Amino acid sequence: MRAWLLALAACTASPRPSLVTTAETSQYLRTGTYDEALRLCHDFARAYPHVACDEIGRTVEDRPLVALRIGTRGPVIYIQAGIHAGEIEGKDAGFAFLRDLLDGKVAAGALDAVRIVFVPVMNPDGHERVSPNNRPNQRGPEAMGFRTNAARLNLNRDYVKADAPETQAVLRVLAADDPVLLVDLHTTDGAKFEQDISVNTAPVAPRGDQLAATAAALSTQLVQRLTELGHLPVGFYPSFIKDDDPTSGFAVSEAPPRFAHFYMGARSRLGVLVETHSWRTYRERAASTYHALQAIVEQATRDAAAWQRVEHDAEVADLALRGTSVPMVWDNGPHTRPLAFRGYAYTKQPSDISGADWIVYDETKPQLWNVPREGYIIDGGFAPVVAAVLDRHGIQHEPIRGRVAVEAFRVQHVTYPPMFEGHARVELQGAWAPETRELDRGAIRVPIDQPHVRLIVQLLDPALPDSLAQWGLFDTVFERKEYMESYVTEAVAREMLAKDPALRATFDAALAADPALAKDPARRLEWFYRRHPAWDERQDLLPVYRR
Ligand SMILES: [Zn+2]
C-alpha cells in the first residue's frame, strides 16, 4: 500500500522535462546545438498528450530529421525552420511558441481546429557547421549554422528537382499529411530598413480559382495582426529590384516552385514565407517570428476549414485544365503603385529616402502554357530518372508500350547558363510538333487526370524554369554520340545531290541565309549528315512527349 502510494507520488511528481531553449537561458545571445533540438522534440512528446516526435528521414551526414506532431483533429499546418540553417530563430521561436500553445497561453482553441507539424531544423548538417561568421549581414546569435546542406545544396531551391534527402523527407510529409498551409521561417539577407518582418503568401498570380485571393487575404490579415502585436510588417519580400538602389522599388511576383512556399501553390495549396529582418537582434527576430506563428495559428484556427474548401475547389478546377492553356510564368508588368516604406537614410540620397513613398510592382503578365489532354510520356531510357522524381512528389505514372501519336519537342538551340545548384542547367529553344513514336521498353505515361496538374506541367514541360529538362536531366540528348567521317560525308553529300535535284537549291538557300554556315566546312558537311538516314534522330529530341 505504502509502496503503491510512493510509486504514484513519484509518477505524478515527476517533473516535466525542461522545454527551455539555450536561446532563452542565454537571453537570446546563443542558439542550442542540433542535439538540443532533438532532445526538445522528444521531451515535448513526453511532456504533453497528443504530441509525437517522429523521425521523417536522414540527412546527407546521416543525422535524424525530426518533426514534432501536435494535435489530433483538423487540417495540418506544416511549419519548417532552419532550411537555411544560419537563419535559425524559427527553431527557437517555434519551440517557445509551441510550448506556450500547449500550455494554453497563446492562440486559444487552436488545437481544437488544427494539427501542427513542426520541423525545427530542416537542414541539420548545415546547422552543425557552426561559425560566428556564417551570416555577415545578420545580428546574432553569437554563432550559427551554414546556409546549405552537407552536399552544398540550397534546400530552398530544391523543392521540384528534390535532389537532397532532406527535401525528399519533407516531400514525404507533405504528401502524407497534405497540409493546408506550409510556413517557411527565414531571415532576410540584404538591405537595411525599419520594417522588422515580412510575410509572403503564395500563390501570388491569379489563376482562375480562389487560391491567390485567399493567399492575398491571409497576407493582409497577418500584416494587420502583426501590427497589433507591435511590429512593422510588410506583405512582400523587401529586396530591391536593383540591389543597391532603394529607389528602384520592390517587385512582387510569382516565383518558380523550387521555393517551398511557391511549391505549395503548384500543389494548389497555400504557402507563406516569413522573413525577419537580419539587422534586428536575435531576440527581436525571435519575438517577431513567435508573433508571426501566433498570427498564423490564430488565423488558421478561424479559417483552416475554409482554406481546405478553397484548396479542394482549386484541385477540381485543376482537373478541368486538361487540353487548355494556363498561365504558368509571370513577368512584372509596367504598372506600379506607391507604397509607404520605412527605410533608413542611406548615404547616396539621404534626404530622399526616410519615410518616402516607394514603389511596388504589382501587375503581372502571364505567359500561357498548354496543358496536355491526356498527359506526358517519358521514353524508355529516361523513364527511371524521371519516375524517381515523380515518386518523390507522389505523382502517379504507369508503363506504356507500342506505337503512339504524340507531340514531341525537338530542340533547335541549347545554351548553358552558369552552373546552379550542382546542375548544368539548360535554356532551350524548340517547339512541339506531331510525331509518331515507337516507344522504348520501360517508357512511362504520366496521366494528367490526377491531383497536382500544375506541378506535373512544371516538372515536364521543357519550357518551364523548373522543368527536369531545364534542370539538365536530359543533357545527354544534346551531345553528339555517333559520327560520319568527313571523307564519307563528302561522298554521301554528292550522292544525295545527285538523287534529289531540289536539294541543291535548298543547300544554296541555307548558305545564303547563314554566312557562318557558308564559311564553316564542318557545318557544311553536317548539313548533309543531318539529312541522311545515318543521322541519330534522337539527338536534340527530348524524351518527354505529350498528347
Ligand atoms: Zn533564408
How would you characterize this protein structure?
This protein is an alpha/beta fold. It is built from 17 helices and 20 strands. Strands 1-2-4-3-5-10-6-7 form an 8-stranded mixed sheet, with helices on both faces. Strand 6 (197-202), helix 8 (211-228) and strand 7 (233-234) form a beta-alpha-beta unit. Helix 14 crosses helix 15 (501-513) and helix 14 packs across helix 17 (521-529). The longest helix is centred in the middle third of the chain and has 38 residues, at 282-319. The protein is elongated, with a radius of gyration of 28 Å. The model is unreliable at 1-13 and 344-363 (pLDDT under 50). The structure holds zinc ion. Zinc ion binds at residues 84, 87, 186. Zinc ion is lined by residues 84, 87, 186.
Which SSEs are present, and which pair or pack?
Elements: H1 2-13, H2 22-25, H3 34-47, E1 51-58, E2 64-70, E3 76-81, H4 89-102, H5 110-113, E4 115-119, H6 124-127, H7 165-177, E5 181-187, E6 197-202, H8 211-228, E7 233-234, E8 240-242, E9 245-251, H9 260-266, E10 270-276, H10 282-319, E11 325-332, E12 336-340, H11 350-353, E13 357-361, E14 364-370, E15 375-378, H12 383-392, E16 398-399, E17 403-415, E18 427-438, E19 444-447, H13 453-460, H14 486-499, H15 501-513, H16 515-519, H17 521-529, E20 544-546
Parallel strand pairs: 3-4, 3-5, 5-10, 6-7, 9-13
Antiparallel strand pairs: 1-2, 2-4, 6-10, 8-9, 11-14, 12-13, 15-19, 15-20, 16-19, 17-18
This protein binds zinc ion.
